[in-house]
Amino acid sequence: MSLLRIAGGAALAVALLSLPTGLAHAQAAQVTTDVGPHYVGEAVSIRITAVGFDENPAPKVDVPAPDSGRLDFVGVSPSVNQSITIVNGKMTRTREVTHVFQYRFVPDRAGNLRIGPFAIRHGTRATSVPSVRLKIQDVPSNDDVRVALTVPSGQIFVGERVPVTVTFTLEAALQENALGYKLQVPFFDEQSAFRFLEQEPGEGDTNVVINTGSRQVELRGESREISEGGKRFVAVSVTRTMVPLAPGKHRVPPVNFSVEEGVRFRRDFFGGRRATQVRRWSARDPGRGLEVAAIPGREQPASFGGAIGRGFTLEVTADRTVVQVGDPITLTFLVRGEGLETASLPALDAEGLLPVDSFRVPADVPTGELDRDVKRFTAVVRVLDDGVREVPALAYSWFDPDSKQFETTLSRPIALSVRAAEVIGARDVQIAGAEDGAGPGEPTRRDDEAPRSRTFALTGADLAIETAPAAVLGSRASGPGAWWVPSLYAGSVALVALALFDRRRRQVDPEQVRRRRVLAGEVARIRAAGALAPADGARQIGEAIRLMLREMPRASNADLDRLLGECDARSYAPSGDATPLEPEFVSRAVELAEDIARKGGSEA
Questions:
Q1: Residue of 544, 538, 523, 601 lying closest to 575 (CA atoms)
Q2: CA atoms within 13 A on the CB side of 201
Q3: Which residues, in sequence order, are bridge partners of residue 33?
Q4: By three-state DSSP, how is residue 386 classified?
Q5: When comparing pLDDT for 377 and 505, which is higher?
Q6: 534 or 5: which carries more pLDDT confidence?
Q7: What is the pLDDT of residues 244-288, one digit of tens each?
Q8: How far apart are CA 377 and CA 305, in angstroms?
Q9: Helix (H, G, I), strand (E, B) or coil at 40
Q10: What's the pLDDT score for residue 433?
Q11: Do strands 156-157 and 288-293 pair parallel, antiparallel, or not at all (unpaired)?
């Protein structure tokens, strides 16, 4: 009989494995919760496990809102289990998809509470699980256990840095017998309307574990001892900086704090104390409303860059102060104050900043880099007028949430020495040896001097072919003048070769030839500048580099800009100094100039 049962069971198993996946695994679901007891204010995890649905997209779960307390959906995580079974040579594949839906329920009163039912649907397939019944116990309170959430009263503004402090207090004797605690701050999980900044390392003297609902965070807290009514207490405070992201009226959820106290103890094998009787105490902060207002839009000054806080300052520096019209100047903006996270620069051509008729500014607003207590911005501007004498004092505005007004500070002006841009004409190019390739110190051709012809003209040459055999095949013994025949052929071939060479030479772009000669001449001028006085040598190097950049504007780079700035500064040095320029400075100038010349040759 037992053998028949075994055979029947094997046949049934084979039949089930042979079924398609959709038939072998119909839709099903079950619900599980944390093991009790459950207490008011302490989160309870509820998990819905569903099988028989597709992996993507995940099915939807519908659940009615509970009569009391707060039910939040935390997330869903799918998992796939695949297996292959071979029975009597027949292979069967099985694929099972499991979805686990995670919910968090925070009860706000004691009693028997019902959560659900839960309906799971995906297209035409659906299943459900019945309601969950939870028995919620009310943890007794104790005046020696307290918790408080502190936020600024009154109206706050979007982008303002707001301190939020959680403080829990224990009577010293109870703290010595405490076995553990739970601190729940759901407000720290509000990521849609608020942002919480990370703590600076080293703040506080103790670690505090906080349950936000969806996760646990460990923050640094400050502990202190206080005395009240003849008792000693230990108070621990954790402060986070909160930045509101959206205007409106928001609700700050309650904060719950519970502690387990050992009442009776015994010694274990190693001599330590082990609690044999435990009781729980709890404390609760009821929460409150929070009103967040938007920054006034109509009153915003043009120099407002979004900064919200207190005590801002602006410092502006320039990488060079002696320039020609059109030369780039890199400005560095250093913004300091309380509330740098929201600080940015306004448009640099806004009212109170750089005038548009004197400066050309970038079209995009520079982005900043936050470095602890300073935010740094950089921008490249160019002077448009040689009458400019300074980078003016620049305005920077911010919104002060205390006074509810916009405040403005000014940077210090920066003195500039601006020269008119040098214009290089055709005569300057001839002097530099552009037309005839004359090097430094060589005379150039006068305007009234006729150019000499450099072409090979064939007009009048007798290139007729000799057809008489006697003349062509004459031997050396035919006469003393027989040598001229091969000479004539050799000369003809050479003449044709020279004509072809001249033709290729005349086909070369004259502009490319001129550019090569100009660049080579300016490199020679820079080499010769090393023997001049510092001011004259620097001036000659600057003029040569600028002329080369007019020929090759695409060769401009930051190194050349710095070199031009140094040349301008040296050219304004006090006169009377006969010390030549440093060889390193001249070598650097020659190296950069040769790089421009190489680029000019490659473009040819």
A1: 538
A2: 1
A3: 46
A4: coil
A5: 377
A6: 534
A7: 888 999 988 889 898 887 777 777 777 777 776 778 888 889 888
A8: 12
A9: coil
A10: 46
A11: parallel
Nearest-angstrom CA–CA distance, 580 and 594: 21
Beta-carbon contacts of residue 401 (< 8 Å; ≥ 6 apart):
156, 157, 160, 308, 309, 310
Cβ 335 vs Cβ 368: under 8 Å? yes
CA 115 and chain centroid, separation: 45
Which residues are within 8 A (CB) of 594 and not within 5 positions of it... i.e. 6 or more apart? 523
Q: Helix (H, G, I), strand (E, B), or coil: what is residue 367?
A: coil
* Strands of 339-439, DSSP E: 359-360, 369-371, 374-383, 390-391, 395-400, 405-410, 414-415, 417-419
Tokens of 142: 């104790």
Tell me the pLDDT tens digit for each residue of 109-159. 888 899 989 998 888 888 888 998 998 888 778 888 899 999 888 888 988
In the 8-state DSSP scheme, what is residue 529? G
Distance, in Å, from the CA atom of 113 to the CA atom of 289, rounded to the nearest integer, reads 26
Mean of the pLDDT values across residues 482-487?
A: 62
CA distance to 176, 366, 430, 462, 589, per residue, from 544 (Å): 82, 33, 14, 52, 10
Euclidean distance between CA atoms 409 and 349, whole angstroms: 17
Q: What are 39's two structure tokens?
A: 């207490």
What residue spans of 508-551 are helical by DSSP H? 510-528, 534-551
Q: What three-state secondary structure class fits 526?
A: helix
What is the Cα–Cα distance from 566 to 538, expressed in whole angstroms? 8
**Residue 284 forms beta bridges with which residues?**
256
Measure the CA–CA gap between 515 and 553, rounded to whole angstroms.
12
- What pLDDT was estimated at residue 481? 53
And the tokens for 523?
A: 């490199």
**pLDDT confidence of residue 24:** 42
Dihedral angle, C-alpha 224, 229, 231, 232, nearest 10 °: 10
Query: If we measure between CA atoms, which residue out of 567, 577, 579, 580 comes closest to residue 541?
Result: 567
Q: What is d(CA 408, CA 337) in angstroms, rounded to the nearest whole number? A: 12
Q: pLDDT tens digits for 280-332?
A: 888 889 888 889 998 888 788 999 988 998 899 999 999 888 888 888 899 99
pLDDT value at 3 more than 70:
no
**367-380 burial: b if 16+ Cβ within 10 Å, else e:** ebeeeeeebebebe
Residues in the chain: 604
**Residue found under tokens 């473009």:** 603
Q: Is 338 exposed, middle or buried (0-12, 13-18, 19+ CB in 10 A)?
A: middle
Both tokens of 98, joined, read 């499991």
3-state secondary structure 259-317: EEEEEEEEECCCCCEEEEEEEEEEEEECCEEEEEECCCCCCCCCCEEEEECEEEEEEEE
- Termini Cα distance of the chain: 102
Distances in Å between the Cα of 423 and the Cα atoms of 325, 426, 543, 546 are: 11, 10, 10, 10
